[in-house]
Amino acid sequence: MSDFTRRGPAYRSSGAEVFALDDIEPPFRLASTPLDWHGFDRARFAFILEGFVADAELPPIKILILPKLTDISGQPFKYRVLDGVHRFYASIAAGFESVPATTRGVCS
Is the pLDDT of residue 2 over 60? Predict the structure, then answer.
């Protein structure tokens, strides 16, 4: 991705809002999930990065709106990834600032 030049703040997708990556909690993978490369399915990750390079339209990720906390612990993130771990981390690798996503949950 060193020669990749992004065309916008997020990869191309339709029917979704764009959310700042800084507002989304970085997802972790369960040890029981079969993976073959640095915690990812290598072929899937490469397919997504190739889609970015080709400016292909890809599905948005799905995120959960986290409830607002009122205690002293603070709240560093507003959202949590429900589906789209590869697209989330590929967006970071490609230098995007945002990611297209659909939301579930209600702000309180």
Answer: yes
Report pLDDT digits (tens) over 22-39: 999 998 866 666 666 666
What tens digit of pLDDT does each residue of 80-100 get? 999 999 999 999 999 999 999
For the chain, domains (ranges, CATH) are 17-104 (3.90.1530.10)
Question: Secondary structure of the chain in the HEC alphabet?
Answer: CCCCCCCCCCCCCCCCEEEEHHHEECCCCCCCCCCCECCECHHHHHHHHHHHHCCCCCCCEEEEECCCCCCCCCCCCCEEEEECHHHHHHHHHHCCCEEEEEEECCCC
Q: Give the Cα separation of 63 and 65 in Å (integer).
A: 7
